[in-house]
Write a structure and sequence with these properties.
Layout: H1 3-26, H2 52-67, H3 79-103, E1 106-108, E2 117-118, E3 121-122, H4 123-146, H5 156-173, H6 178-198, H7 202-224, E4 234-236, E5 245-246, E6 249-250, H8 251-274
Helix pairs in contact: 1-6, 2-4, 3-4, 3-8, 4-7, 5-6, 6-8, 7-8
């Protein structure tokens, strides 16, 4: 990699992050209007506990951790690349999470959390930034190990361009909605970064893994967003997101998950590639 390429990459990342942080700083959010009630009728009595969010982490991480020692996948051997990736990306997203919680973009229902908080974030929310990427990168690794044929390889470049256009349009048209703009702008920017600087075939594998993870994500986030409880665990300011939900899950959450997991995968693959240098 030439010095000029490194310089352009650094400038690109600096500009993108500067725009996002500036928007977070100047955007005025109306406080006190978080949605605590959603129209749904599938409440499960077992979920009505302050340990609900914590239970979700156990449900997510325990089976995946045990399967990490599968001989074909041998996921445990990649921990030295995965954990730094989770830490680096998680640091930014925790900062994002804390800022949005402080500003009133979203919040947490005390009915379903233990009450332990760090920087206004429940301890369960901190755990989210470990258990979810761990599980999703595990899915990514399993697909590579068990399905060697890459079905998305031929169309991955076109798909990236389409997603860049879609996310860019959504970001521009929703400038006043801080959650929508942030998730879409960062998704578009990260894909542009891939097109310009990365150009690695693993992004096609990521697309497959992301679509595979959508079902468990919908179940997990369905619980968090009030699909199976009397009220949501995570509550949103209706003025700051699209207002479109898949069952109880805001569409913005899928985009947020997309950019988060793609960022983790990008660092993960970058660290793995360095072992051969």
């Amino acid at each position: 990699m030439t010095q000029l390429t490194i310089l352009w990459k650094s400038i690109f990342i600096f500009v993108v992050l500067s725009i996002v942080v500036l928007v977070w700083y100047i955007d005025q959010v109306t406080l006190g209007i978080l949605q605590l009630k959603l129209p749904q009728s599938n409440s499960i009595s077992f979920f009505e506990t302050k340990f609900l969010y914590f239970y979700l982490h156990i449900f997510t991480i325990v089976p995946v951790f045990l399967l990490s020692f599968d001989k074909k996948v041998a996921f445990y051997k990649t921990w030295k690349y995965l954990f730094p990736a989770i830490f680096i990306v998680g640091a930014f997203f925790i900062f994002w999470d804390a800022i949005f919680t402080y500003k009133g973009v979203w919040g947490f229902n005390d009915t379903y959390i233990t009450g332990w908080k760090i920087f206004h974030l429940p301890i369960e929310e901190w755990l989210f930034f470990f258990t979810v990427p761990y599980a999703c990168v595990f899915i990514y690794a399993c697909l590579i190990a068990y399905f060697p044929n890459d079905s998305f390889l031929r169309i991955s470049d076109k798909l990236s361009i389409i997603l860049i256009v879609v996310f860019s349009i959504l970001a521009i048209s929703n400038w006043g909605k801080i959650y929508t703009f942030s998730a879409c702008f960062l998704s578009s920017s990260l894909l542009i970064y891939h097109v310009l600087f990365v150009r690695k075939p693993y992004i096609s594998r990521f697309y497959t893994a992301f679509m595979t993870s959508l079902f468990p994500f919908l179940l997990l986030n369905g619980v968090l967003t009030g699909g199976f409880t009397n009220s949501p665990v995570v509550v949103y300011n209706p003025e700051e997101f699209l207002g479109i939900r898949c069952y109880s899950v805001p569409l913005d959450d899928f985009i947020y998950c997309f950019v988060y997991l793609l960022a983790v995968t990008t660092f993960f693959e970058s660290f793995r590639s360095q072992k051969n240098i």
